[in-house]
Write a structure and sequence with these properties.
4 strands, alpha/beta, 7 helices, 4-stranded parallel β-sheet, 195 residues, 9% strand
Length: 195
């Protein structure tokens, strides 16, 4: 019984935190639409290459390196575009799962984002793939980091290429979830009629 009450409290705390963060964004942004920069944090092409090379790198190191690249790119975009650019790497909430972060960022995209820009190699990230599908489903523009359109057709080609690249390693414990997410995303894009 204690486990259920702990789980209930955790869910309530997560809900309260989601609500508080969304309220803070509303206070800061009002009705302004902003740019969201999506990029790998916990996975990515570098992780795949390291695994294939037999290089063992801790998840924390991958996340730190990916986060630094994402934050640096967001800072550059802020200077170049003179606009607000949200990026997910600097929001770190102890105990949160990727599911909780994705739920928050999807709500942010739905409410406050005019365009989602994607870092190179986004197609090797479960979070980025999820954010791409969500943006397309909700009519939010998608672009590459250079500001050119990222169409559904181009995204599907990138996702299919990443899926094919991952196929030989799809049973690896760290790559299985990524492969399955890419497979599902490709199927959903095709079935959604967004192409």
């Amino acid at each position: 019984m204690k486990s259920n009450s702990n789980e209930d409290a955790s869910v309530r705390n997560s809900e309260l935190l989601h609500s508080a963060i969304l309220q803070a964004w509303k206070c800061a942004l009002g009705d302004k639409k902003v740019i969201y920069l999506s990029g790998p944090i916990t996975t990515g092409r570098q992780m795949l290459e390291n695994i294939r090379a037999g290089v063992i790198i801790a998840d924390e190191v991958i996340a730190r390196e990916n986060s630094a690249a994402l934050v640096g790119a967001a800072d550059t975009l802020r200077r170049e575009l003179n606009d607000i650019v949200l990026e997910p790497a600097t929001l770190c909430i102890p105990g949160w799962s990727q599911t909780e972060y994705l739920r928050l960022w999807k709500e942010c995209i739905k409410r406050y984002v005019s365009v989602v820009m994607f870092m190179p190699g986004w197609q090797y990230s479960v979070g980025c793939v999820t954010e791409f599908g969500f943006a397309k489903t909700h009519g939010v523009n998608t672009q590459k980091i250079d500001g050119t359109e990222l169409s559904s057709e181009e995204a599907l080609a990138l996702l299919d290429g990443a899926r094919s690249n991952l196929y030989p390693d799809r049973q690896h414990p760290r790559l299985r979830v990524l492969y399955e997410a890419l497979d599902t995303a490709c199927s959903k894009l095709i079935a959604s009629g967004l192409l």
